[in-house]
Amino acid sequence: MQTLSDLPALRAAVAGLKADGKPLALVPTMGALHDGHMALVQEAKRHGRHVVVSIFVNPKQFGPAEDLDAYPRREAKDAAMLAAAGVDLLWLPPVEVMYPTGFATNVSVSGVSEGLDGAARPGHFDGVATVVTKLFNQVRPDVAIFGEKDYQQLAVIRQANSDLDIGIDIIGLPTQRAEDGLALSSRNAYLSEAERKAALALPRALGEAKRLMEKGESVESATAKAMIILENHGFWPIDYVTLCDAVTLEPMTVLDRPARLLGAAKLGKTRLIDNIAVEPK
Ligand code: AMP
């Protein structure tokens, strides 16, 4: 596996990978890799003859009071995992390569970016859309793989890819979970032992609300019960537990079409998110 950090070298290496005309797959990440990321890599190998993984902790998607400095960084371990998984190229750009002095462009996706994490984390999805557009232009893959763990992010990227005629095949992979059901996340590393146990309340609360709604209980009542479960396990503040249209992410008050229940809340200093499909009768 090659590891590259400057753009001319990346362009040359990508041209080499593409020379056989076979599909190239990209997996964008922020590193601190876990089995969820590695499942994306395996999916990438199913779709691409060649696989590029990027690791870039993108300052533009962190708010001023968020965890940019604390975000776990373990590039050497990550690189070893990716090499062992058969990845062709690790793209590891430094911040000054991604955002050189004078960088002035912002990619902003309206609509799907605006509620949920877009409301709780102002500017977050502009940062995501901008960096992913840049990664797409740098690597020019045929296919890119993202996790449903970040369901709104996936919707934002699909929208930008379509609106800007980027033309990459965007694949969403179901959320990979620990044995007990907690969604794998680089931020789980922040949790104390007691918090790790309490964190399970997030998938459980969403699962319970899903069960209630699919049984006919109102969206309002079921989501309120999910929030109570979260509060009872120490989550606070709760940014949202919201049922949304599975495609547009518009909030829904009645379960009358395929939906997604999304939740975000803080446990101690760690902000966790999760989501689950909810189907109408
Ligand atoms: P991150 O490094 O957290 O920015 O995530 C990089 C990619 O991995 C994104 O497409 C995430 O949605 C995806 N991802 C993170 N955690 C999981 C998970 N538990 N299951 C599936 N995909 C994930």
Structural notes for this entry:
This protein has 281 residues and is α/β, with parallel strands linked by helices. It is 38% helix and 20% strand. It is built from ten helices and nine strands. Strands 1-4-3-2-5-6 form a six-stranded parallel beta sheet, sandwiched between helices. Strand 8 and strand 9 form a beta hairpin. Helix 6 packs across helix 7 (151-163) and helix 9 runs antiparallel to helix 10 (219-232). The longest helix is centred in the middle third of the chain and has 16 residues, at 124-139. The protein is globular and about 55 Å long. The structure holds adenosine monophosphate (AMP). Adenosine monophosphate (AMP) binds at residues 29-30, 36-37, 39-40, 146-147, 149-150, 173, 175-176, 183-186. Adenosine monophosphate binds at residues 29-30, 36-37, 39-40, 146-147, 149-150, 173, 175-176, 183-186.
Short note summarizing the structure:
By secondary structure, the chain is α/β, with parallel strands linked by helices. The protein has helices at residues 7-18, 35-47, 75-84, 95-98, 116-120, 124-139, 151-163, 193-199, 201-214, 219-232, and strands at residues 2-4, 24-29, 50-55, 89-91, 143-147, 169-173, 235-245, 259-267, 270-278. Helix content is 38%, strand content 20%.
Detail the topology: elements first, then pairings.
Elements (H helix, E strand, L loop, with lengths): L1 E3 L2 H12 L5 E6 L5 H13 L2 E6 L19 H10 L4 E3 L3 H4 L17 H5 L3 H16 L3 E5 L3 H13 L5 E5 L19 H7 L1 H14 L4 H14 L2 E11 L13 E9 L2 E9 L3
Parallel strand pairs: 1-4, 2-3, 2-5, 3-4, 5-6
Antiparallel strand pairs: 7-8, 8-9
Helix pairs in contact: 6-7, 9-10
Bound molecules: adenosine monophosphate.
Adenosine monophosphate binds next to helix 2 and strand 5.
